[in-house]
Specification:
By secondary structure, the chain is an alpha+beta fold. The chain folds into 2 domains: about 120 residues, no CATH class; about 150 residues, Hypothetical protein af1432, CATH 1.10.3210. Helices cover about 40% and strands about 15% of the residues. It has 14 helices and 10 strands. Strands 3, 4, 5, 6, 7 and 8 form a 6-stranded mixed β-sheet that branches. It has a two-stranded antiparallel ribbon with strand order 1-2. Strands 9-10 form a two-stranded antiparallel ribbon.
Length: about 290
């Protein structure tokens, strides 16, 4: 297959995320061996259709085949009975219709839909979620130890930046970050955990004093933190996270606090991104105090 790379805008000010079909196909062939997996041009074109309010990324497609491979023996029995069929991943609601040939399955198209209708046989596999324990992330320290050294240093240096005592009785930014990360682990979601680690790093560059009220401020810290998450996209993905989701959560964690005060069109825009539910979960952990 010739090199195919298409850019999909996932959030208006996020990095353009690439859907790399070659990467997906190489991974699918590896985990589904001896079955050869091929993708049609229509499949590739379907990835960027505007109807997908939640874009389908190569990370999700790799996850699709990773989870399907865990059911490979059962799937092999299923596909022997049909020339055409649909495979659905309940975790992502991704549906892929396949055409079978000898030792080969051809992915004809793709659609994210919870109630996908088809006259063909359907193979649905359960949500085999790779939890934080499987990723060996069970505490702030275990996630911190996986970070690049320069990023570790920047996080650790947050101990030198105080916060408003009335909003953050727990103390400095590092103490707050540790607390929020540990809270977020209860969701067993790698994107939320990584976002918790990044969300306030930008306070080191934005620390100041309110000119009239005299209290500590960190205006715009979420923008600095989000840029850092963008810069560490490769690391985020290397530990199992989705870089676009993490960026979205970090960039919007302050905006979410004003959600009820936003105009309807702004609310709709914020809610339209696929990780909005993760942003809501994260917000519950991002509060002052140690409990």
């Amino acid at each position: 297959m010739q090199n195919k790379m298409k850019h999909v805008k996932l959030f208006k000010d996020f990095i353009t995320e690439s859907v790399n079909i070659d990467k997906v196909e190489k991974y699918a062939d590896k985990v589904m061996d001896p079955i050869d997996v091929e993708f049609t041009k229509h499949f590739y074109d379907q990835l960027t259709r505007v109807e997908h309010t939640k874009e389908i990324t190569d990370a999700e497609l790799i996850g699709f085949f990773k989870r399907l491979a865990k059911k490979k023996k059962d799937f092999d029995k299923f596909k022997k009975e049909y020339d055409q069929f649909v495979v659905k991943d309940e975790r992502s609601d991704i549906n892929i219709p396949f055409k079978k040939r000898v030792d080969q399955i051809i992915a004809k198209t793709v659609m994210r839909k919870s109630d996908f209708k088809t006259s063909n046989a359907k193979y649905t596999f359960e949500s085999l979620v790779e939890g934080l324990a499987e990723l060996e992330i069970t505490s702030f320290r275990s996630l911190f130890d996986k970070m690049p050294k320069e990023l570790q240093k920047r996080v650790y240096n947050l101990k030198g930046f105080d916060q408003r005592a009335d909003k953050h009785p727990e103390g400095n930014v590092l103490k707050h970050t540790i607390t929020v990360v540990d809270r977020s682990l209860k969701d067993d979601d790698i994107d939320i955990a990584i976002a918790a680690m990044f969300h306030d790093i930008g306070k080191d560059e934005t620390a100041g004093i309110h000119p009239k009220k005299g209290h500590i401020t960190h205006f715009g810290h979420e923008k600095v933190s989000a840029k850092l998450a963008k810069d560490y996209k490769d690391w985020i993905e290397s530990v199992g996270g989705n870089a676009a989701n993490v960026y979205y959560i970090v960039k919007n964690h302050m905006r979410y606090k004003q959600l009820s005060d936003m105009r309807p069109e702004k609310q709709k825009r914020l809610q339209s991104f696929r990780a909005f539910d993760k942003l809501g979960k994260f917000s519950k952990h991002d509060r002052g105090g140690l409990k």
